[in-house]
Amino acid sequence: xxxxxxxxxxxxxLKKELADALAQRPVISAAxxxxxxxxxxxxxxxxxxxxxxxxxxxxxxxxxxxxxxxARVIDESLIGTDKVQMLNKVKVKHLSMNKIMExxxxxxxxxxxxxxxxxxxxxxxKALIGHGKGEIVExxxxxxxxxxxxxxxxx
Length: 155
Description:
This protein has 155 residues and is of the alpha/beta class. The protein has three helices and seven strands; from the N terminus they run βααββββαββ. The strands form two sheets. It has a five-stranded mixed sheet with strand order 5-4-3-7-6. The chain starts with a strand and ends with a strand.
């Protein structure tokens, strides 16, 4: 089982999604029962629709249960700022574009580049992890190699 690292906020959100999905089970079961009462199941679109919704819901529940089971909450009190690691806010300079960028390294399920949350498993995230302030790192991306200078590491 592959571990997924999350913040406490991300883990709480994941558990809520699972609870919400589990709460839908009785609703879908009721819809299936109601559709069954309408007679011939072979030509009952409502029944087929409810069964399909049940299958999708069960798939979602299984996925969420796996994610919760494989989740590891990162203890933010143990995170330092001498080397880049998960949950660090990193300020970098894109050397070829001469552009300053800032983002927080998070687990894949919490990544949202528009909100400045970069998955640590991305090529840029992998390149930064373990390096310190002032170092120049190279990230191999599909378009080639990008060089960054690490300007700052904070929490």
